[in-house]
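User: Watch each token:
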Amino acid sequence: MPFSRPFLSAAALAVVLAACLHPPVTRGAEAAAPRPLPLCPEASVSPPSGKARRAPIRTDQAIDVNSDNVSVDIAGDAQVGGKVIVRQGDRTISADQAHIDKARNGVDVTGHVDYEDPEIQVQGLAGRYEDGAAQFQAAQFQLRQQPSRGKAARLSLDKQGVLRLEDVTYTTCPPDSTDWLITASSVELDSAHQSGVARDARIDFMGVPLLYLPWISFPVGPARQSGFLFPSIGSSSRGGLQFSAPYYLNLAPNYDLLLQPTLYTRRGLDLNGDFRFLTERTHGSLDADFLPGDQETHTDRSRLHLNSTTQLPGDWRLHVDAANVSDAFYFEDFAQGADGTSIAFLPRLVELTYRDEHWRSGAVLRNFQTIDTGLASIDRPYTELPRLYASGWWMLGGGLPLEYGVDGEAVDFLRSAGVQGWRLDLQPRAQLRYEGAGYFLQPAVGFRTTSYQLRDVAPGQASAPNRSLPVASLDTGLVFEREIGARGQQRITLEPRLLYLYVPYRRQDGLPVFDTGLPDLNWVELFRTNRYVGADRVGDANQLSAGLTTRLFASDSGMRYLSATLGQTFYFTQPRVLLPDEPAPGARSSDLIAQMELKAFQNWSVDLGVQWNRQQSQAEKSEVRVQYRPQDRSVVNLGYRFQRDQLEQADVSAAWPVAKNWNLYGRMLYSLRDRSAIDQFAGLEYSSCCWGVRVVARHYLSTRTGQQDTGIYLQLELKGLSNVGTAADAFLERAIRGYSPTTQKH
């Protein structure tokens, strides 16, 4: 199964031409006047079908000739004039004059010559069509499957489907512009063998040569072929100027390799390779970097990431996701953006899983490379060698809606500091599920038992502690719905929900904490049966969680305009189970959770969320996001995030057209708590019909100690061809919420 990687060769002339210049093979088209080139590449018609091979031209079809006047000699040859139209199948030639050679089944045309088939239009001064082959002099051509045009001193198409052009120029710019242009002494395209060759190819931009290659080969259509890709240029204060020259290796239909050496003026040459593979049962990639003798650190720097999934016989699957870097500062030096400073651990995971109708089970081997070396050994995550788990679920036949199952796992936790050992956790459970139009009722019971076999325990601590307790819950909800509006064009719902949970108290201070934590309080957490994530703690509970949701949506399309939720947990008995250093709750209820989403209101959307402490009359967490987005490339975002004693941030971002063909970008993520910017950038773009240039300057937090880095993104885009420079679209999509770099049409 081949990949579908887009191939942008350095001789992009060949690639673009190869995608569309094929011999005509379809039937049934009427003669059509030559179409003018669309003003912009975005105005293209439907893309080509993507077939890799074309059939040879049929020569058994009759040639039809229409003209104003005709004279026939004794040999059967004809001289026609006036408005001459020659047809054979889907191929049509119109000219001022034509000479029909009956013996050779050919036509010579002169004057204003137009040739058209389903994939190419040609205009020339003279030409010949004979036995399925065509030749033209001083030809101007236009590809029908995309808005692109060119000129050739000579153009020929043989009946085997080989297209030859000499003294070629090519562009996707409109007829009154040649801002970028490709010239080549000759181009040969063989669609039957999916190959092409160009000689003396040069790319010019604004009259300045960008690239020259004396000879190149390239794939025709969707086929992939080895070759250089366009280079990229960038700059950062930590790496200096950087230049990358990628080379693509088409090793086989089901695996390939992208080599991308990058030269950093302050550090040296980084060797990058991205190997992708795909078989009937396995797919994945291996991505690696190696920079020998970093000029700043005087050490070798490297990164390795393997991601692979294999479908094994039966219902088994093997997944590998493992990464490694040479040192703790790798991402600070080479990651572009503040996200690199937040990587504390790199996971290494090997997982074997089994799934069928009732069972989900597996075995996991997992550990982590610690990137944040400031963490003490006692605070680093455990290695799991192994984690064995199984979960089964069944339904009882008959009229009783009984569902029952069991969850279990056994894990060996390893670490260089602190307690280690095995944990076995089992939980059989059952539930009744009654549901109908507008309601559900779900009583459930379970029994959870957890036991340990520990090593390196502190003096006086048990080496084999255990815990067993029942869990009972009753979950129920209603859905009320009604039409609103003068014509019932909208519907509104009211959805109350209650969950009663009972879990008796068991003393758990003597149990270790391997992988258990207290998650953020949100709507989902209100209706879970354990307030902790992980098996080392099961929270005691005698409580009622209550929530209310309302939604407003369009009756015909189902588009949601408004969604609002409100929820809280009320404690009949004060919870007593705690994690180490977790403060004991002093209230008879949890914080109040409120969320609202307003969508599709005159291009505005608003997201609000708050966790409100009623006892202190203050917000513990809050988030506000407002967006105005009249179109894909026009968006303004305002955001605010607050978490008491941890963070307070303001976020402003925008992408906006300021004049015809001109756009501005910008973002600032500012820490109000630290009174400093975390990430900020500004950019300017010019985008015309056939080319565009974009420059973005970025200043961001790059180290855990608060140091800042500056980077520059520079991109030149030749529409319909390729990009030169560091691609910025993907970065802008991540940084500006709601921005979509769809192509403009001016």
Q: What stands out?
A: The radius of gyration is 34 Å. Helices lie at 12-20, 330-334, 523-526, 729-735.
